[in-house]
Here is the input.
Amino acid sequence: MKTLLIAGVALAALIGTEALAADMPLKAPPQPIVTCNWCGFYVGANAGYAWSRDSMSTASTPTPDALLGVVPGVTEGIAALSAGGVPIGHSNGFIGGVQAGYNWQTGNFLAGIEADIQGLSHTGGSGTITQTAIVVGSPVTSTQTGTASVSYLGTLRGRLGIVPNQNWLLYVTGGLAYGGVKANDSIVQTSTNGFSGAGFGSLSTTRAGWALGAGTEWMFAPKWSVKAEYLHYDLGTASFGSAPVGTPTSAFFVGTPYQTNVTSVRFQGDMVRLGLNYHL
Here is the structure.
């Protein structure tokens, strides 16, 4: 009888313990730690290839014939040979530089800002155009030569992208572009009647404009990523005059310019490049 009583008490205690355990809330499993590979600062270097789409044109204003004491149509005819486009062509070459930036990430969406600067190896485009016309009974030949180049290019751009998985980024980018630009334009005009004249002008300055493009980036190791990117840049149009313009080397129009030239250059182009980034 005593043995049965002890067994009953033990069984009741066991049942009570199991019931109490069943009523207790289960502990939630630990949440996985989410790593943001793209967040924060990064620095790196880039190299690639660029090709320009620069263009050049000249506007010419003739000095009034009456001021020079010549028959009507002389200066207008000569100045007409100076006006129009100069076929400077396009230049291609390698580029290389450095970049730094910062990223913010929310879920699969990323926003960032990046600054970069690079040098360009190509020396720029150049071209020559020669035209001949009869001006008040005399043939006049005009030869005009122009060059244009961008020596360095920098940008400050925003980036917006999506992260399909934690190691892969797709983005579009756009913002400020700036660069060192140079250009020059020369013209030589001669005629069989003894007339000759020449002028030269140049430009060397820093221009600001815009850049727009897209790219992809892959995190191939902890803190290291490689990117491929395309950018189009446009630094706008710069103008400069030729001085002196049309001051002749002969006795024709002695000491008085017979035209005023203003040359305009549009600086724009494209680049593709690869970059290596280290994430701090």
